[in-house]
Design a protein that fits this description.
Blueprint (H helix, E strand, L loop, with lengths): L8 E3 L11 H14 L3 H9 L3 H4 L1 H11 L3 H18 L1 E4 L2 E4 L8 E2 L6 E2 L5 E6 L9 E4 L2 E4 H14 L4 H12 L9 E6 L8 H6 L3 E5 L4 H13 L3 E6 L6 H4 L8 H9 L6 E6 L6 H21 L4 E7 L4 E4 L1 H13 L1 H13 L16 E4 L6 H20 L4 E5 L6 H4 L2 H9 L10 H18 L7 H6 L14 H16 L1
Parallel strand pairs: 9-10, 9-12, 10-11, 12-13, 13-16
Antiparallel strand pairs: 1-2, 2-3, 4-5, 6-11, 7-8, 14-15
Length: 501
């Protein structure tokens, strides 16, 4: 795959012979480098993979499995993967490619030989909402707004159905017990990807928080965010370019192309107690790796300047990835597989005609931990590399003593999902297999409540990086389903198409 159409800013390296920017070469090399010290056989296998776009999945799975050997192995894989990606990615300007760290010498590259030019600093403007701060947690669900006992019953129902981990309900229950936790005015929460449907911005503003919002400089995007802020209770500080005109026309920062200026702006923010850097960015294809790399470079710089203890990191993980999961989730899935009477009548003939590809069991009984593979192959290796980069940063920051809020979010009907007809249809039929697909308002409020929990409790380590990732996961039932999610995806899509008609 080529990235030659976007040659400026944070880019994939260029092949000197062809000039092409290959995402395949980088993805394969980064995975191999991450594995090399702890799974040399796996590293060699990744390097020999000749069809990366079709054959990437076993190598990403191996990254998880190799890390289960020990805490040190998981942390080592994370650090080596981060180092490899940062060493390979480049900063490109009019003067050509330079190492990624050189981006911080300026806001761009100008002139022959890549000489740096001074960055134009971004200014700040702060909007204060006019609403009353909410001091009790509530969650939109099924056309209602659930609070207090009604919300506790919904959490219990999700646990009973296997939709969320029990620790997720416990964490949200603690926020219900401590409504004063919602008052985050002692933090500054940087929301990178402020307009993201899964992001916490609107919930934080409802609770009266101080939010620093970063997203692309687009009038329509900032018109919406400014309007939301004025109706709500918190404050939103935004980066602005020098000039006249309405705020929406001057607000925003492009992480891929203006990395140094945005990083300087974030590093200089005031925070009464702690700066929280939340990564909620998303883009299609190769751009997703570029923007995720930019965020990670920003994060490294801000942590280095302010100190690890002064900066907390927040991430939302996709449920469509490979995770190690607790034995309890495995046991629930195994029971469900044995008890699904209707499916037992269908799965033998379906597995026979499909060569064993349909309705496979989710786990081998007795696994502890189990390996859940819910990857949607159509999302591709760039998507998985971008998300793995975030997981690696969370692991490395926590191992160094930093506070991390890392949460697996549920499958959600976001715009980026429903624009893919096949995936939208699979989501529409997923309930037939015990998987609940959330509405964006429910999912992002639930995730914001878990962020509050982690900031107020210090998000202590659970003992091993895989357990930190699994803690309080809201996987929608993908971890507890009777069937390997990919083996049921096609049938769910057919059922979803039928119900849509």
């Amino acid at each position: 795959m080529s990235d030659s159409d976007t040659p400026r800013g944070v880019v994939f390296p260029s092949d000197p012979a062809t000039g092409r920017r290959s995402t395949t070469v980088v993805g394969r090399a980064v995975v191999a480098d991450a594995l090399r010290a702890h799974d040399p056989v796996g590293a060699a296998s990744a390097e020999r993979e000749t069809s990366w776009r079709q054959g990437y999945l076993p190598h990403f799975r191996r990254l998880v499995e190799a890390g289960l050997v020990s805490d040190a192995a998981a942390v080592g894989i994370a650090r080596d993967g981060l180092a490899s990606l940062h060493a390979r990615m480049r900063w490109a300007g009019a003067g050509g490619d330079v190492p990624l760290p050189d981006a911080f010498g300026a806001g761009g590259v100008d002139g022959a030989g890549g000489a740096e030019r001074p960055a134009t600093p971004l200014g700040s403007e702060t909007l204060r909402g006019e609403g009353e701060a909410e001091r009790a947690l509530s969650l939109p669900y099924g056309g209602e707004r659930l609070a207090a006992d009604a919300l506790r019953r919904r959490l219990d129902a999700w646990v009973e159905a296997g939709t969320v981990e029990p620790s997720c309900a416990e964490a949200v229950g603690r926020v219900l017990d401590h409504p004063e936790w919602l008052d985050l005015r002692d933090h500054t929460v940087v929301v990178l990807g402020a307009a993201a449907e899964m992001g916490p911005l609107r919930s934080l503003l409802r609770w009266g928080a101080n939010v620093a919002a970063v997203d692309l400089p687009r009038n329509d995007l900032w018109d919406r965010l400014i309007g939301d802020t004025r109706r709500l209770a918190g404050t939103m500080t935004v980066p602005v370019r020098v000039g006249d005109g309405p705020l929406a026309a001057r607000a925003g920062g492009d992480l891929v192309h203006d990395l140094a200026a945005v990083t300087e702006w974030v590093a200089g923010l005031e925070a009464p107690e702690r700066l929280v850097v939340g990564n909620y960015v998303y883009a299609d294809g190769a751009t997703n790796v570029r923007v995720s790399t930019a965020v990670d470079a920003l994060t490294e710089r801000v942590v280095a300047e302010r100190g690890r203890e002064a900066v907390a990191l927040a991430f939302l993980a996709t449920p469509t990835d490979v995770f190690a999961v607790p034995a309890e989730a495995v046991e629930r899935s195994v029971r469900s597989y044995a008890e699904r009477r209707t499916s037992r009548l269908l799965r033998v003939p379906l597995r026979t005609v499909s060569g064993g590809r349909l309705l496979r069991r989710n786990y081998v009984p007795g696994q502890d931990p189990g390996i859940n593979d819910s990857v949607v192959l159509q999302q591709g290796p760039n998507y998985l590399l971008a998300k793995r980069l975030q997981r690696w940063r969370a692991t490395a920051h926590r191992a160094g003593g930093g506070l991390v809020s890392f949460k697996v979010a549920p499958p959600t009907r976001t715009r980026s999902v429903v624009k893919n007809r096949a995936l939208a249809a699979a989501y529409a039929g997923a309930h037939r297999f015990g998987i609940e697909v959330f509405e964006p308002g429910t999912a992002n409020t639930l995730m914001a409540a878990l962020l509050v929990h982690d900031l107020r409790t210090g998000s202590p380590s659970q003992g091993h990086p895989w357990q930190d990732e699994a803690y309080a996961a809201a996987h929608g039932g993908l971890w507890t389903s009777a069937y390997d999610p990919r083996s049921a995806l096609g049938i769910a899509a057919l059922l979803g198409f039928a119900s849509a008609r």
